[in-house]
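Practice problem: DUF1146 domain-containing protein
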Amino acid sequence: MPITDVASSYLLTGLICLLVATIFDLFWLFFGGLLKPLLAQPKQAKMIRIVFALLMISLLRTIVNYGVIFLLVGLSQL
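Answer key — structure tokens:
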């Protein structure tokens, strides 16, 4: 059921963003606590930094690739 009232639509969008941010923050805090003992050891900390760096690069590459695809699909429909 679509929301036709603009104010209700904005309110619902804001509430969903708040919910997603809260869940993500709790997830971040929980796993940050689990990683703290590993980050205290230099060798494991370096490995974790490398893994996170590779994940960020691959995520950025995926976003750029899909962004180009969506842009091309959008332009072809004009």
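Discussion: Residues 1-40 form one domain. Students who identified this feature from the tokens alone can consider the problem solved.
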